[in-house]
Target: MTMR5 protein
Amino acid sequence: GSGDGQGQILQRFPEKDWEDNPFPQGIELFCQPSGWQLFPERNPPTFFVAVLTDINSERHYCACFTFWEAVESPQPQSHPRNGEGEEEEEEPSSPIQPAQLFAPKSLVLVSRLDHAEVFRNSLGLIYTIYVDGLSVSLENVIGNLLTCTIPITGGAQ
Model:
């Protein structure tokens, strides 16, 4: 109908919460601050970081990389004629092909560290692997990203 919808989590890593760092509830609301909507054209990917504060006043940096994918079009609809029995046929009764629609899909990285550029590069890598259909499992890529060492801001290289 209107093209508005609700986001849902399709996949997450790790699949279960870590005891010291639970998964933020309602994170899908932060991915699309203007709401989940369909668009008539494919928009360029976007990136932003939202900062969530938990009940213990600890910050969680939620990096969000959003891109748009084509969605299945609804069934073609018949175009009604102008009245019944009228001989005026400006437009014949034919199926109208609906316009192609695009839905947002977001990759989100949640961290207690504030490293926006690292987040952007990591999500960009995951996006590239996904879009190019490379034969690398996302689980392995994410596992490798989780085990990399990030230098302390202002510290040694």
